[in-house]
Amino acid sequence: MSKQVRKANVLSTEQITPHLQRIVVGSDDFKDLTSEYIGNYVKVLFPKNGEVDFNLKTACVRSYTIRHVDAQTGALTLDFVINMHQGPATDWAKIAKVGDELGIAGPGPKKLDNYDHSHYVLLGDLTSVNAIKGYVQQLPLTSKIDAFLHAPTEQDIIDLETNRDINWVITDSADTVMLSALKSLHITVEPPIVFMALEAGLVRKTKALLIEQFNIPRGNIVSSGYWKKGVDSEGYKKQRQRDAQLA
């Protein structure tokens, strides 16, 4: 990912579902950004005490997937989960207003790098909904796609701008219902490639199910715990940093 941090401003903000705030950010420095970056991620540098620290090493930083890029200006549309998790990003997204300053670094690459496979399984929730959107639009039309997205309410279902079938799993108990939904998977010839971005505990359980029940090789599974139940975003970030140092 580019280390360059671009200064940006909020162009618009709208609560589109009970748990999603859609914010468009723009900058004169975005003119090189095009639609090819839809589904990639950027790092967002948030204000602290009303001021933005533009140093990636010391700033309050979180990663977000690009939902849309304005063809003329390069303005980025990002969706923020609200009213579910605690942390500085959620707090900022709920009160952000037009003109507010922030920093944007990136874009960084997509997690999947194989676009020539016969079968893909995509698993996500509201934190990764736009990563799933990017993949279903980019994967080959000849490939089979099984996509499962968790949302807490039917009002949280959003348009992924695709004709592919998306299995929305609506429940407050994602742990059990998502695992149950996966049992309907039908694998024909070769093991699928799996992308999943979910709650950290659910990622572990799901990976075990895919490996043990469906014999999917570990190397076929691209996974990430975007958040952790019972831990706020700042605490989870520090926990991952400690784990990375010990690895």
Automatic annotation (TrEMBL):
InterPro entries the record matches: FAD-bd_FR_type, FNR_nucleotide-bd, Riboflavin_synthase-like_b-brl, SIP_FAD-bd, SIP_fam, SIP_rossman_dom
Residue ranges annotated for the FAD-binding FR-type domain, each copy included: 3-114
SUPFAM superfamilies membership: Riboflavin synthase domain-like
PANTHER family assigned to the protein according to its UniProt record, in alphabetical order: FERRIC REDUCTASE, NADPH-DEPENDENT (PTHR30157), NADPH-DEPENDENT FERRIC-CHELATE REDUCTASE (PTHR30157:SF0)
Sequence similarity: Belongs to the SIP oxidoreductase family.
Protein known as: FAD-binding FR-type domain-containing protein
Organism: Pseudoalteromonas aliena SW19
